[in-house]
# Entry
Amino acid sequence: MTSPFRTAEGGRIDRGTTLEFTFDGQTHTGHPGDTLASALLASGRHQVATSVKLGRPRGIAAAWAEDPGGLVQIEEPFPEPMLLATTVELHDGLVAHGLPGQGRLAEISDSARYDAVHHHVDVLVVGAGPAGLTAALTAARSGARVALVDEQSEAGGSLLGGTDRLDDAPALEWVAAAVAELAGHPEVLHLQRTTAFGSYDDGFVLALERRTDHLGTAAPRHVSRQRVWRLRARSVVVATGAHERPVVFADNDRPGTMLAGAARTFLHRYGVLPGRQAVVFTTNDSAYDAALDLHRAGVAVEAVVDARPAGSPRREECERAGIRVLSGAVVTATQGVERVTHALVAPFVDGQVGAGSAIACDLLLVSGGWNPAVHLFSQARGRLRYDEALGAFLPAEELDRLSVTGAAAGVLDLAGCLADGQRVARAALTALAVAPPGEDRLPTAPEPVVPAAPLVLWRVPDTSGADGNTSFVDLQRDATVADIARAVGAGLRSIEHIKRYTTIGTAHDQGKTSGVLASGITAELLGVPVQATGTTTFRPPYTPVAFAALAGRDRGRLFDPERVTSLHDWHVAAGAVFEDVGQWKRPRHYPRPGEDMETAVLRECAAARTGVGILDGSTLGKIDVQGPDAAVLLDRLYTNMMSSLKVGSVRYGVMCGVDGMVIDDGTVLRLAEDRFLLLTTTGGAAKVLDWMEEWAQTEWPDLRVHCTSVTEQWNTFPVVGPRSRDVIGALFPQVDVANEAFPFMTWRDTALDGVPVRLARISFSGELAFEVYVNPWYGVAVWERLLEAGRPYGITPYGTETMHVLRAEKGYPIIGQDTDGTVTPHDLGMAWAVSKKKPDFVGKRSFARQANQDPLRKQLVGLLPVDRRTVLPEGSQIVELHPDGQLPPPPVPMLGHVTSSYRSAELARPFALALVKGGRSRIGDTVHVPVNGTLVPAEVTGSVLVDPEGARRDG
Amino acid sequence: MNPRTPGADLPEHPDFLWRDPEPKRSYDVVIVGGGGHGLATAHYLAKNHGITNVAVLEKGWLGGGNMARNTTIIRSNYLWDESSAIYEASLKLWEGLEEDLGYPILFSQRGVLNLAHTLQDVRDSVRRVEANKLNGVDAEWLEPDEVRKVCPIVNTSTDIRYPVLGATYQPRAGIAKHDYVAWGFARRAHEAGIDLIQDCEVTGFATEGNRVTGVQTTRGTIAAGTVALCAAGHTSVLTDMLGIRVPVQSHPLQALVSELLEPVHPTVVMSNAVHVYVSQAHKGELVMGAGVDSYNGYGQRGAFHVIERQMAAAVELFPVFARAHLLRTWAGIVDTSPDASPIVGRTPYDNVYLNCGWGTGGFKATPGVGWALAHTIAHGEPHANVAPFTLDRFVTGALVDEHGAAAVAH
# Structure
């Protein structure tokens, strides 16, 4: 295909290079510097899509992110749903097609990289148009640390789409010089193709940099495709320009209808004529530039239709060029099928439309004025006010750390923007106590023709007979003036209700062109001031952002990165099957060839009960608590007394929430008068540290105590079983391991070949056991020495499953498995762990509550399936004995549930732990457990099923 | 051109919704809060009890708080008897609500999957499924291959950080269009003669002993026979005026939508471990909830890192979402109670009833709580479905701890 609408020269495209792309199955060409939209227009194509509800043709109606029409699906280089053709930079091999309202997700996963960068500056300027560039230059010249971000592929903003001159030269020469100067300031970060999409408190702005999209298939794999910039600025200057506002009239959605300023951009920036024969419909002076520029470029401008009765001072200029100007007239409708063929033009007097006539055209340019892009200001909760003269919303207040300048602040002339950018930057610097630069000359802009006041016109009365049903306010949602009228007629008054009833402003463009129109038309229909109607809330993001870009690097292996102990490689080599526990990978069991989990676990359990086993317990949380008030803090947080613990001793402790429910448990080693080492559950480590910090920092800041996570500073290896003393005694001959010399619940420091090692007599299995603590750098070596020393006794590594079986046989609960946040220490049979001497501790008050005295509270008990065969599924519910063996109809009263359930080598039968209402009073009773439709009888027992006397603990 | 467009099947709204009346001087019942709960209560007061001298006071626009901001998930697969009773009663009302309201609320029973990613998740899931079954709530446990059949786009491979070990499935669960639900209740209330008064903020209460006699508002003082507080996240602002301490913490909770997409997601998926809850709405946008901001506040906006984490979780669990686009984010204010269950019923004032603390469960409970609160107001006695959720339980300790069942760990 050729590009018949490409101008012979001009534009900021590289005409020396031709790019080939495919749209809707047809091959087209374009040039570097083109967008998909400009290349399609160059080929003469306006319609790119169909609308979501009515299936009407939709074309390119603007030149950038405010376009409500040109939605496309990218297929190559990688499928991406719903982008605007106006914002897709052209590259070789691009394949796209127009959308019927819905995008399509790729079926394969996205292998592109995304990342995020934090950056801190004194001044962040958003937008590299005239105001933004000036602001950035002023800030940079002061020596401040500056970031300038702009969404386009190059700096210049509105200057890219015009013919402005500065200092008697093309304004873009000034832009180039400014960019070069900024590049020379070492403290300036200047990013193009970077859209600031979110504005939050305290100068925090999110921006998305599109780094390789414009390179297409040539994008280097090692460069992230998109990058989220997390910008924190002491001061933010918003110089985001303004969006041109359409006027609504019948069939205003017909392709070939375009914002006037956009046509200038296509002409000057991309070297494209958006048509051959144009009508320009305006309510303000700015569209006269479009008319004159297109005329000079060879477009037949059939008429400028100016709704203002007095017209414009620029009328003469047009007439000199031979362009007809119709003042006090409006476009009432369009004709055509998939492209405008005629504009219907009629006189417009005192709001009344007269008899009209059709003017042939293939391009209808519209300008209803300008909407300052106040999105970032409003997202940061800046209040807006309606400006009667502009017909738009402007910032109504100064925000701390965030100022708005240029067209975004309603300044619509070039000289004004330059001066305003400088003024705002100087004010921002002064507020930051940075001296503004002495030398800070502004370029000279020619005196503009003083414009006539714009007319605020939201819509042209519909004389087409369609009753507003084809007068589109939101082209993306197919929402019309008639829809607003219907909403108002339904009794709706709030613009938020109007938005939801009509869906205006909820589409891809989030109301960039439709929002203010909807406010204006609603106010008109209600007969209230536009200020009273207001706008809907501006919410991030300003333009859509891919999920993957926000996910950044936190994907795959880096999504919540795995934590492993220093022995991980050893476990892998030993054939361990792993389990996720919190963020940790823990060996669940070590199957030998041919073993399933059940066989492996029975073997591992038997070894620990009859010989010796060894566990990697390094994932247990460890918190080093130091300070003169360490014991006070622990007394207040544990239910039991920790201050009475002797240095060198160990105590098991329980922590409860303020509701008296168990939140964690573990052992506490007293290392010194003012120092403790706390062990927490693996999954609870971070939560417990947070808990301690919250109390220490917010409730008891007077306590002199510090808590530090040392989980990763220690490996912990429980050596468990009747032969554990032999193993420890053999490896540490200098330690007297006799029971009297090294009693249960004490610890000793020693060393192995000069490596410090801590030993503790702690048991989570009921067996004689020693925990070995060592710096993880030596973890593998010490582990292997333990295995070597244990070889004569058949030392057997075991995993979490065996650990669970061993502790369950002893009735030791796992917090979070046998408890669920509704269980007190008393419910667990641990009244002994609740101090009666301490004046207070977290949870104590709640133990006195009525519900805690209820004898029918659920209590932890054992369950023995009567058939001696069934392993009750964990999570099963427990119901009363039903003599007929049948369940009554729902709701069936439940007694509790199975929390842990295993096959026991020691007991030679399955067993379970359960929380059962009034459980301890039911010992000896039979209850029933529904399992796959049958009721399995089980006997209630005490929770300690193995060695209830505790005879094995000391070997 | 294809005559079937993706947006062709969306329903039209009724031609009239509600009047915008001036407040009268006095009402038998004044409901503070014109969100889903307040409007549903008004509807059932009229419909079930013939009480129509009622005003619903709304400080902003009707249904504009959490009702307009939630992710529209409806389910009743809660763990405890007390919770499953109210949520199941609510679900049964949902099943007849389109007819009752005469409004196309787009209630779609597409099922909900609650994924399990750890062995403990599996235990908790089995426990909940078994409890649901015994309580007469539809629930099943699905193995990963069955999960894939229900929702093919969930990453059920083992090559993922937290592999899907299975899921609970409630087929009767689903979604509805939140705004339409609010408007359906509002329209019915209006038709019954109830005054829906917008832009009317409560600034204080007139009291006599243990009774509230009137409600002071930005539109004047309104005498009230009975007052019901249905203000969700702002409840504590109101109860402060009454000198009642309510153990509710208000947090921002964010949600987001994508652009319109061709149908890819046939059900609702929730995952606590890989924090995601997502459905695809009727028009085609992905609707997703994010996490709670940890600070307290009444501002309806949250911090962006919460959204970034949410996107990471979503792409992890649904690789096909990678190039979907975030179109809009927003926040509501969740009122969370210490046991993650609501507080409904009596207050120290004889004629003031409380309804708050719904946290993330408020939308799905809308008809159920409206029904029960209307009954409570009409009879002066808590309805059985809300009887367990007293304010008093934080004194007695009779908690209903649903932390495990809430979508967001709060």
Q: What stands out?
A: DSSP finds 21 helices and 51 strands in chain A. Chain A has a mean pLDDT of 96.
